[in-house]
Amino acid sequence: LTQLEPKITHHTLRVILLGGEFIPMALIDACEKKSLPIYKTYGMTETFSQSVTFSVLGYPHKRDSVGRPLPGMQIRIDNPDADGVGEIHLTGPMVMTGYIDKEPIDGDLNTDDIGYVDEDGFVYILNRRKDLIISGGENIYPKELEDLVYTLPSVKECAVVPVPDPKWGQVPALFVAFHDGESMTSDEILSFMTNSLAKYKIPKYVKILPTLPRNGTGKIVRNELRLED
Description:
Elements: E1 16-18, H1 25-33, E2 38-44, E3 49-55, E4 68-69, E5 74-78, E6 86-91, E7 109-117, E8 123-128, E9 133-135, E10 138-140, H2 142-149, E11 155-165, E12 169-178, H3 186-194, E13 205-208
Parallel strand pairs: 1-2, 12-13
Antiparallel strand pairs: 2-3, 3-4, 5-6, 6-7, 7-8, 9-10, 11-12
């Protein structure tokens, strides 16, 4: 959709289902301006794909969420913190019974995603647990940093990953690629981020690449992003 959206001048589309990876807000903005019927969705193979969805045009004030659970699906936040953020668990008829040769799932699937549910029942995904950065005891959600960087018009794609640090345990590193003919320096990017983020969230490293590695389904392969390459 990122590649197709600039080419769309008029349409008769009824639904555009978006899921599978975090969606840059810049793309949502562009689609809203053209009244493209985006439905954000959340799910996984273990739940036969879709579990949560909603129309962005129908609920523009909820654009940061992934929607409400489908009929029959229930969301539970396990081990919530003071802000209600915790591990997302799913229960419902679409949840699989288990993996081969492993203990069966008793109707409650730990998605390994971190998020929360608001007062209207909309689900918000902050990050995959494995992507969470813990720096000096503070939680840093890469998606928050990536969403901010994606607001820069020059940025085509980006990803924030943890790197080991002897003092803080982990620190964030930003990998970024620009649109053709566009560029920014690392200092310019960091200066921009400093205006919006707490100091401990600012990436310690920035690496500019021609493109970010992706797998066959188009998702950024974070474990292939390395500072030394």
